[in-house]
What does this fold into?
Amino acid sequence: VPVAAALLALVVLPAARAAPAPPDARRVYLRDCAVCHAADGTGTNRGPVLSGVGRASIHYWVSTGRMPLSSPTERDRRRPPRYSAATQDALIDYVTQLTGPGPAVPAVDTHHADLARGGELYRLDCAACHAWAATGGALLEREAPPLGKSTPVQVAEAIRVGPGVMPAFGPSAITDDDLSAVAAYVRALQNPQDRGGNPLGHIGPLAEGAAAFVVGLGALLVASRIIGKRA
Ligand code: HEC
Ligand code: HEC
It folds into this structure.
């Protein structure tokens, strides 16, 4: 029991101690966004007006690390997000409150989605720009980025929001179910099964075997020590 209590404390205490103060989204906005989008979100000559953009758009731009831009002449591109998830949420709340309601973050369910349908739509509506394997492609004006790192929610947001020169697809073009199907298909493209011969095929089983050996033997060792003490 003391051991269990100690283990529990190890797990529970740091979580309790780390409970963060709610991030001050207003301060973050004024420091990182207002220079281009203005303190009230009405825009400047460095950045567009944000009124009514909605949570889907704000989440897309901030969670893909595109915002904040470091300079108005910089081209937006995917980067690691600048903020923690909690700060992102607070910032989205703040900007939405400042600029009024707009499209919500779409709900996606990739587990029950129709992959075949997703593939059909992807080839029809997306592949021309992002390439059939979602590796990205060249456009006249600018590049369509690869989708290898986009989360299903970001895929759905991009479809509804239409960032930059990408067209927005409304519910009449891509229904909410289809939205999940396309997001699931992009996810599947990110994890190809490589049935035709994986170059790591010879290493994979060896690595798995080694893991089983170490983890399995370790577990046996621990178990036998516990049993041994009781006897
Ligand atoms: C250096 C200037 C700059 C800064 C700083 C900046 N932005 Fe932007 N923002 C832009 C520009 C320029 C665009 C248009 C980008 C494009 O279409 O490629 C934009 C677009 C956006 C959009 C999409 C607007 C729309 O109409 O679709 C959102 C949302 C946004 N920014 C939020 C933010 C937030 C939140 C921050 C702070 C964390 C921020 N931006 C910081 C310049 C900036
Ligand atoms: C006309 C070309 C075009 C079409 C068609 C198009 N896109 Fe895009 N897409 C773009 C461009 C350009 C961007 C980058 C926008 C920016 O950052 O300004 C983009 C961005 C994205 C992103 C963000 C990627 C990232 O970095 O995280 C996703 C996800 C995405 N598109 C998915 C789709 C899906 C799914 C479809 C089909 C329903 C589609 N796109 C159709 C051009 C296109």
Summary: The pocket of heme C (ligand 1) is lined by residues 32-33, 35-37, 46-48, 50, 53, 57-58, 61-62, 67-69, 71-72, 76, 91, 95, 164 (CB under 6 Å). The mean pLDDT is 86. The CA atoms of residues 118 and 178 lie 7 Å apart. The radius of gyration is 24 Å.
